[in-house]
Amino acid sequence: MKISHFVSAALAFYLLFSMVSISVSQIMLGIAFILWVIALIKSKQKIEFPGFFWALLVYIALSLLSCVFSDNPQVSFLDSRELLLFLIVPLVYTGFQKIKDIKTAHLALLASGCVSVLFSLFVFAFQHESGERISGFMGHYMTQAGLLLLFATLAFSMLLFSKNSIRYIWGGAFFLSSIALILTMTRNAWIGLVVSVFVILLLYKPKGVVVIPVVLALTFLISPKSVKKRALSVFSLKSYSNAIRIEYLKAGWKIIKEYPIFGTGPDTVDVIFQNPKYNLSRDARSNVHLHSNIMQIAAERGLLALLSWLAFVSWALISLWKMIQNKLPSLFPLTAAALAVLLALFIAGFFEYNFGDSEVVTLFLYLITVPFAAQRILQLKESKKI
Fold first, then answer.
1. Sign of torsion, CA 276 281 285 286?
2. How far is the CA of 238 from the CAs of 4, 176, 233, 246, 279, in angstroms?
3. CA atoms of 19 and 110, how far apart (whole Å)
4. Structure confidence by residue, pLDDT tens digits, 63-85
5. How many CB atoms lie within 10 A of CB 94?
6. Burial 216-226 (b: 16+ CB within 10 A, else e)
7. Which of 49, 79, 140, 322 is the one with CA 20 to 30 A from 236?
């Protein structure tokens, strides 16, 4: 058996534990990386990746340069180890050899998501205290919400665009994961889910988007009081979390003006904004980031890094849209999910630094890369026929 088969198997095992165990999923991903490098060396194959990865490479380079000029280089370089996770893009792009391998990997993700959701609902039903935000296996409700957003988006796309009978299992997974996501009471992820459902319905049947307000209204009516209160807080500038986010916007803008080129350095913003001149309240100073992808990246890595990150998002968005227009049936479910995931995480990122959560980012990069991997496999298959 070729070593490339073990690479796809390791990726499948990563997905199997991606929503259940952080440590095991990281181990499996590490094994996949090692096997992938060995496969590249043995086959003398050059590293390939989708075009949008160029922008991520620039982002990596600028992040490392930011570490050099950081207020605390040691902390920044240590934090930059997480940039290695971006290698999941070329890993996924060349790690799968057959469409069947991708289908197997997604079944593993389906199993992982279902176990995570059922565990979350069990905790809510039997161990949950009033007002508590469920976190599943992740230990923190924000990470759980980010993963559930990605999983629910994929599940909804598979339900509507897949042609096999397993689509109904994906449909059940979407329904239950949406409930679990609501119970995390994470508003940015709620907004992200609405965005992803809107995008997928628009691609499926544009008139179908009219059901979204109806579903939202019904969901609100039958939700627990704690969820209703959380939902209504979105519209109140006086609510605790909204007031703090406004503080972060003002402080972040001041930091960016003071550190415009290279930022304060990765993982140092929370130390910098302790300075009284940024006018953050005690509660705001106790947090570790600025609750916004754009604000956090610009503040800690500089405006050039922010531009490269925005270039990555734009490049991936345009590439996925071009793939959508090709309307290849075998690619459409994955491509629609990737497009929806990209927009959902981007919009949710206006209200939360979700690009700083390694578990969420890793699965996110997997989901937006896998359509390109499938397209590459199909192109190689066609070229062998000629």
1. positive
2. 55, 32, 8, 10, 17
3. 10
4. 999 999 998 999 999 999 999 99
5. 22
6. eeeeeeebeee
7. 140
Mean pLDDT of 30-46: 90
Q: Is residue 247 part of a domain?
A: no
Tell me if 255 is assigned to some domain: no
Contacts of 219 (CB under 8 A, 6+ apart): 182
Q: What is the pLDDT of residue 1?
A: 55
Averaged pLDDT of the chain: 91
Residue 59 within a domain: yes
Task: Tell me which amino acid residue 258 is.
Answer: E
Report residue 161 CA to chain centroid gap. 21
What's the pTM?
Answer: 0.94
Burial of 238 (0-12, 13-18, 19+ CB in 10 A): exposed
Range of 157's domain?
3-238+285-385
Number of domain units in the chain: 1
- Residue 70: partners with Cβ closer than 8 Å, 6 or more residues away: 76, 77, 262, 264, 265, 266, 268
Q: What is the mean pLDDT of residues 40-56?
A: 91
What is d(CA 347, CA 195) in angstroms, rounded to the nearest whole number? 8
Residue 225, domain member (yes or no): yes
pLDDT tens digits, one per residue of 221-253: 988 888 888 888 877 777 777 888 888 888 889
